[in-house]
Amino acid sequence: MTIPSERLSGDLPVVDAESVVDQLEPDATVLVSGFGRVGYPKAIPLAIADADEEFGLTVVSGGSVGDEIDEAMVEAGAIDRRYPYQSAGAVRRSVNDETVAFADRHIAALADDVQYGGFVDPDVAIVEAIAVGEDWLIPSTSIGHTPAWVESVDQIIVEVNRAQPLELTAFHDNYRPGTPPNREPVPLSAPDGRIGGPRIEFDSEALTAVVETETPDSPYEFRDPTDVDLEIASNLQSFLVEEVRESSLYDDSVRVQFGVGSLGNALMGALADADFGDRDLVYFGEVIQDGLLDLLDENQLHAASATSFALSSDGQERLFENASRYAEDVVLRPADLSNSPTLVDRFGVIAVNSALEVDLYGHVNSTHVDGSRMLNGIGGSGDFTRNSPLSVITLPSTAVDGDISRIVPMAPHVDHTEHDVDVIVTERGVADLRGTSPRERARAILESCAHPDFEPALESSLERADANGGHEPHDLETAFSWQE
């Protein structure tokens, strides 16, 4: 693969960020690149936040972005609506006090939602790149939905970030599915295959501005694994080793996905010691985290496919210094492929995601604290949980220093139903829910996953619910009292 020698190629409309702000309509719908808090525009959002003009923008990203958008622009009052995932304090507070309107969506379907589904009517795409020409760009540390964004608008603005090495070109595999109903099957036969190229192409007339920046992505901050994290990881490892040994689905290789975050990063570490025999370990998911780089460095990971890097400062340094070596085993592709239900099913990916809480029947709340306050969003967890042949939810059994049980009688908000969840893992143990009736599920989760301090209350709740009868019995008064 040829690495470009120049950041800017051809006759380009190079301007400063403040000039771009003058081009924007105050109520524009803006599609921004970014996924996992990397690969998003930085200079233009700060210029918007500092502008004298009052903005009321609708901002759509492929995944989480950095503080330049979700802190500075929000605090400046420049965002009226925000879709579909966020992870910063300022925007979260604004979403929960209704200062910013917010709607959550599954990542896999977002490109189609924007292009064909009437989700929003986009005006402009502002995307980050490491290089740009008159009718093409090469993304930086994430691809996300950038290919769909540039197809969806008549106005494209590119931030060329000189802080991102041109060697990132080697990771990118951009492929666009066709338009329904004539959409062809995605011609990807292996998780590490390549079916596209590094460039995202567009109509040259759509490129209205190019802004040069040198602002690096903010590194992801992974906390050190707690004892509880390590116990969850140990339980997951034991379960997966036995599952791989017994199921013919994993005769040749083990394909896994992990949710982004400190727990997910810790769980990846558990795979380093897992005895999968001579089977290759393959990652097919959304983000590349430090734990995956560790596995690659130790020659314990055959390949990794994602749409974004989400790395600590140490991880970023490792990646940038050794980009050519990592690119031999790592590929970044658009989010509608990294999260594609078809590909998750085709490759038989084991989905491992975390949650806020799980109820006794296996319903999972991933997004709303107390059923009401939005945390971040569903992200891609639904794409994998629903379409995986083995979906695993991992979480500690308690929160707030043990004062709150994360195993509850009835989830106050449900993101993943009992029909899509196969296994629950906490530091207490593993509940395999496959083939169980509701009462059997409740018993398995209570006995294997709940914290002993809360077992008596959960047991009492089950007894009162059981007295009411029915297929999946509830005692609503007891269930709702847990939220108090």
Automatic annotation (TrEMBL):
One of its GO terms (biological process) is acetate metabolic process. GO terms for molecular function: acetate CoA-transferase activity; acetyl-CoA hydrolase activity. Keywords: Transferase. Residues 315-460 form the Acetyl-CoA hydrolase/transferase C-terminal domain. Residues 461-477 have a biased composition (Basic and acidic residues). The keyword Transferase applies. Residues 17-166 form the Acetyl-CoA hydrolase/transferase N-terminal domain. PANTHER family: ACETYL-COA HYDROLASE (PTHR43609). Belongs to the acetyl-CoA hydrolase/transferase family. This is Succinyl-CoA:acetate CoA-transferase. It comes from Natronorubrum daqingense. The lineage of its organism: Archaea, Methanobacteriati, Methanobacteriota, Stenosarchaea group, Halobacteria.
